[in-house]
Hints:
Elements: E1 2-3, E2 6-7, E3 12-13, E4 19-22, E5 32-35, E6 45-47, E7 51-55, E8 61-64, E9 74-75
Antiparallel strand pairs: 1-2, 3-6, 4-5, 6-7, 7-8, 8-9
Amino acid sequence: MLRGDRLEYGVWKSSTDTFIFSLKDHAGVGPVKMPVKSDQTDHAVQHNSSYCSIFGGGNELCVESNANSNTSSHCRFGNTYYISFQAMPVIPTPS
Length: 95
């Protein structure tokens, strides 16, 4: 997180407005917005010197350094952020 003019690593950022989004998932569902759960706002996001960013206290979305050249990044939704079928669609599905 930014503190003054430097990035703070290893500090969880609390937020009630944080969300993760997907334009389209592996099943073709999307776009969806996955907001942070109201009782999990203390672990919204963290920057780490070993990882680029971690979203959610259960490491729900972890983007590793050099993510384009390794397979270490991962996602495990459901603890801190609503998973896509629980989330509100960003764009309503046409009827």
